[in-house]
Amino acid sequence: MLKLLHLALELAYTTLVYYAAFLCYYVGQQPIGSCSILAGDTKAEVHLYSLAKQLLLWDTPHYRAATFADDLRANLKNVAMPGTGVPLSVFCYSRATALLFVLLVNPVACLAAACYLRLARLSPSSPGSSSSRPVGLADTYRQLLLAPQHWFAIWRHNCVLMGCHALATGSSSYSLEDKGAFLLQGQRLGLPVSPFYQAATVFVKHKSVEGGMGINVFKNFAAGGDWIIQPALANSAALAALLPRDAPLSTLRVVTASIAWLQEQAAQQAAAHSSSPLRQRQVQFSTDDSSQQQQSRPGSGASGSSSRGDGPPQLQVPGGTYRPGPATPPLPVSAGVMRHLNVDGRGVSSAKQHGMADPALPPSFGVWGQRHQQQQQAPCSQQPAAAVGQAVLGQQQEVGASLPADVSGNASAASSMQRPQQQAPAVEQACVEVVTAVWRAGLAGKCTDHSSICFGVDVATGALSPGVTANHWYRLGLAGAGRVDAAAARVWQSHPDTGKQVAGCVLPGMADVLDAAVAAHMAACPNLPLVGWDVALTPEGVFILEVNLSCNLFNGAFDSASYYSLLWHYFDQLGSALGAGRKKAD
């Protein structure tokens, strides 16, 4: 009896924390990190702050829809909480229905999911994986409600981040969400985008239907039409060996992150700080006593090194000092996304600067940590974007020449798939990192890899991890009501259609895939925080098919601490930027 009472109190307390934090960010509109009841839990702060932000920006413009609400309705019409069959877009009918979901439906659904996961002894964060140690119902409920780690929560975090960033910056790079705009821009920058025909109009005629009824006319997007007309690409021999013969093109999703915008903010803050009247007065009345100068700097100790006990940590980046607000989570000194955040103006790791050991690279970030060890020793350098792409991609510019021009071998069509190489504005290098990579193994008889099993890829070695799927989130109506698909609790060591072992196999060519994604991020959209790239590994080489800005990680493994710290710092700066914008408008 006492155990049940204790469990009820724990569940009730977690629910109260959820309400208090949400109201702090939604009603109080406080900056991230200001809710003391979360006790500095970075994951919970990111989740609840972004949840409130999504509702606060309900009627504001979105980069790919009229409003944030319209974007939610469009993207959630085929997604349902497992076991309900109800599209989440139903709760996006109005702000009131969205609030109903947040305040009532979500806590109930999280409690039901916690009970299911507890009974099935499954992890609340890793699909299909059993818990390495028993996880209590209260702990599972707390994670699902306050800091969920499943693919949908990560996707939602990314969507809110990119929507806020687009609103605050108005960056033209968000136009690359349009598949045609990306292909044209990638072609101009010399990136290995998938080849496409540029003929203004294409006639497709049935071989036997008469009377003009078997004719379809398509106007090319490159000539103002709506259709992207491309030759079909094939899977590389290594990928094809793991797939059924009639599998579709099975692509890799590579997600990259950039801190270039944070660097710009740091430079602006440094310039504003140096030109402020208070700063000029401090300089005017400063003495030559170095110890007094050190004491006069906020957050500095006598030795000049910042410690977390002296105030918010200060982050040295090329061009200025990034000063997060109070209650800032610790900056990880690790590889991956945050590695370059720990580089000061002299190119020295802050860990080494303060005498701390640089930890071993986590496996999921091994390639870029090892490959850019030397880059880490120098500040970001400047090179033209096209030069960056060509330097990183090597011979990829010649790939298009080996592809068939068209099915009839018409020489005139060959010239329509050229890749002009033009110079573009300079961008900073060493500011982009790989977050995760996933191979979507297509299923037999399908046209695309939207129906697939997702196998994680270790970017250090190219080794594939066991596959999972999120198909149980897409069961709508009666087919999804009252039951959870068995796939929710399953992992695949082999391809379900062939039985061929996939987990543990090594994909050759992964270095080229990662190079292409990083080069594209640096060249095409260096100031965007997170970008998902759909990349094809073919017999002719690597091709980037499209860019996804509000990107899905497809259950790929990633450095959780680095990812959430990155989002925390972006939300911190974006909150200030959006607040300044509102003041100007008023």
UniProtKB/TrEMBL annotation:
Q: Where is the composition biased (Polar residues)?
A: 273-287
Domain of life the protein comes from: Eukaryota
Q: Where is the Alpha-L-glutamate ligase-related protein ATP-grasp domain?
A: 488-550
Compositionally biased intervals (Low complexity): 288-314
- Region Disordered, as annotated, extends over 272-335
Q: Which InterPro entries match?
A: RimK-rel_E_lig_ATP-grasp (IPR039523)
Annotated protein name in UniProt: Alpha-L-glutamate ligase-related protein ATP-grasp domain-containing protein
Spans traversing the lipid bilayer = 7-28, 96-117
Is Translocase tagged as a keyword?
no
Q: Which UniProt keywords apply?
A: Membrane, Transmembrane, Transmembrane helix
Its taxonomic placement starts with: Eukaryota, Viridiplantae, Chlorophyta, core chlorophytes, Chlorophyceae
The organism is Tetradesmus obliquus
